[in-house]
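Recap from last week: sequence in, structure out.
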Amino acid sequence: MADTTTKQKLLIGCAAGFSGDRTDAAAPVVQALIASGQPAVLIFETLAERTLALAQIARRADPEAGYEPLLVDLLTPVLAECLQHHIRIVSNFGAANPMAAARRIRALAQGLGTRVPRVAVVYGDDLGAPGHRAVLTQALGERMPDQAVTPIVSANAYTGAQAIADALRAGADIVVAGRVADPALALGPALAHYGWAMDDWDRLARATMAGHLLECGAQVCGGYFADPGFKDVPGMANLGYPIAEIDADGHCTLSKPPGTGGRIDERTVKEQLLYELHDPAAYLTPDVVADITQASVHAVGPDRVRLEGVRGHPRPATLKVNVCSETGWFAEGEISYAGARAEARAHLAGQVLRERMAGLATLRVDLIGVSSVFGNDASSWFDTPIGEARDVRLRVALQHRDRAVAERLVREVTAMYCCGPAGGGGVRTAVRPRLGTVSCLVPREAVHTGFAWLEESTTA
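Predicted structure tokens:
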């Protein structure tokens, strides 16, 4: 085992928690990393479950598309400083086209007049090619999409931290990945920095949970915690994004950049620690099974919280794969009603649309401001007594394999301008492809990962 006792602690800052996050978050994080004088890595987490499928659709239209749309906006404010101060960048903003993302980053660096970065591209997560159909069919069984009816758009495995670590050890300034597990964005740099063995389960689990705290960006800094009068958070318009200091044993201390808004305390950290955790004793990741049942969370200063006591168990023998397929078309329309009897008029509009679409599709009807968040696709609330809400927005939606049916709905909503009920306005409609998702587990040995330099190509 490598001697890590003399190593400086590693700082990992996170500047995005999803595709579409704020693009001004990175600069304060980078300034804090520079000021620390410690080895540092900046991560961007920009993928969600269906982001990859949408990226694959974008790549169909343009072979140089399919990566994070905000890539340039995210990197432009900080790329030059990161390269100057040797702050490595690791992200999954490669999405469906990591190599194209890498090319765009190199072009951006050239445009900014910086030194040319060494960009590594992680591959192996994409299982969408025909050669992977057999393993997907075996894993999904009857749930395997019928290619003649619902063609597969994307199939991606949640891969681990090994390739990221290898790329950083080889001297990468920037690592661009597709679908790696979110915590791997932090575990990879920790592995590279400390040289831990891939079966050092406790250390791997601790760094994995540090990555879990970071992966949602400002969520752990009070953003998703905030509830006025109950859980107050200062400076919400200028939230700081999180920084984890990871020590040689994998324990971490969480903080945020000085002068930024938000808060980091025991409660914000505990909420994020439990976020999406199906079993506190067995949080499954591609690299390790983490156990937080004996973990401790305690404040060690203002906006500084330490996580200790995480344990690890051997990693699973399988990897999760999300398979997205085309399932038809999704249509929705909205129209507003206000003033006296607004709820009754909106209700009548919904009833008219249900009657006119009868026999074509099941229509979901929501009255935003009355019943929407707690409604359901069957609109079972619709026959309840009408109330007296005076500011109501009607929303209707359907999904159907036939685009003509989807377009019929939006025409019907638009027609309400003149067809009534009275006083409707602010119509908004949309029709877009509908994606369905099924998940499965495939044997680890069926997924072959690694990295390639931007200047090279791979057939993997």
